[in-house]
Amino acid sequence: MAKHIYVIRHCEAHGQSSDASLTEQGFQQAEVLADFFTGKKIDRIIASPFLRAIQTIEPLSKRGNINIEIDERLAERILSTRDLPDWYEKLQATFTDMDLKFDNGESSNEAMKRIVNVVEETFKSESEHTMIVSHGNIMTLLLKNYNSDVDFQFWTLLSNPDVFQLSVKDHEVTLERILE
Q1: Residue 105 has what pLDDT?
Q2: By CB atoms within 10 Å of each CB, which of 130, 148, 167, 178 scores lowest?
Q3: What pLDDT score was predicted for residue 2?
Q4: Residue 103 near residue 82, CB atoms below 8 Å
Q5: Nearest to 143 by CA among 25, 70, 53, 135
Q6: 79 burial via Cβ count (<10 Å: 0-12, 13-18, 19+)
Q7: Cα separation, 92 vs 105, whole angstroms
Q8: CA-CA distance, 111 to 60, in Å (whole number)?
Q9: CB 173 within 8 A of CB 167
Q10: CA distance 164 to 9
Q11: Helical H segments across 65-148, by residue range
Q12: Which pTM does this prediction carry?
């Protein structure tokens, strides 16, 4: 029996803080996302605690009467606890050196381990069709765990929202982009 996890990057939002709301366009994107999944079997929804992730999946949750489970491990990766004017270059460097860390931030390996644990637990659960709603950087690290070709350039090409399907059958994981 195959199990499927839809990994979703949140819709367009007003900024990066944990309480940043979706934009007007983001709310429209969330409705389109709900339309896309209408008719598809969904057993479970797990989301980052960040408001933009929850708002992204609320329309589908309400339509399907599916509870949104919040998992702190799906929160966006913390690159640093201080403002980094050159954050883009620093983020890029963390894809080359997966153990590189800045000022109380997480290395790529630490963040990857955090989100991979959620996915591995989900694959072992009873759910056959699960949605995970998260953020671009940590989602890229998750996908890199299953496909070594995923890199910083891949992250730069993500859209809001973006949807990938991870499937596991006979202990083999496949990855496919299904909506961008």
Answers
A1: 94
A2: 148
A3: 87
A4: yes
A5: 135
A6: buried
A7: 14
A8: 27
A9: yes
A10: 9
A11: 87-96, 108-124, 136-146
A12: 0.95
